[in-house]
Design a protein that fits this description.
It is built from six helices and no strands. The protein has 162 residues and is mainly alpha-helical.
Amino acid sequence: MNVLIGGILLCICSCVGFYVASGYRKKLLFIQDFKNFLDFVETNVMFTQDKISVLLESKKDSFHKEFTEFITNYLSNIQDVSSYLTKYVQEQKLLDKDTAELIANFMRELGRIDSTTQLQSIKQANEALSTHLTRTQDEQKKGTMSARLGVMGGLALFIIVL
């Protein structure tokens, strides 16, 4: 009976540790996807100058789940994008407030200004996002640590219960 209880505690602690670690990983993937998106938009603004909605629709499936959902919601709310982005910044739980505001401010301007200004905006967003990416990569180490602590804590509880 003690082995069963210890096994359950081990599983619970491990799952909690991996759940916390996945939050950090999702945040990092979202920011990396946004940087890739900026590079994609920059290339297309310089060369093809297609409509933004066409670009987003063609590229959205090449990103991870969270960023794809963001792009899909952005496209479905394209008529009232400002209120959608304001709501997104307030309600999202994945990113910190500064990063979410940076992304929202860039997306508000996307496709609404001339190509030269758009390129400058992309470069500014890329520079600002580099700082956020570095910080998020450092936070990723916390995620790895939490997964390890979850497993170690579960093992400790397993041994104590035995």
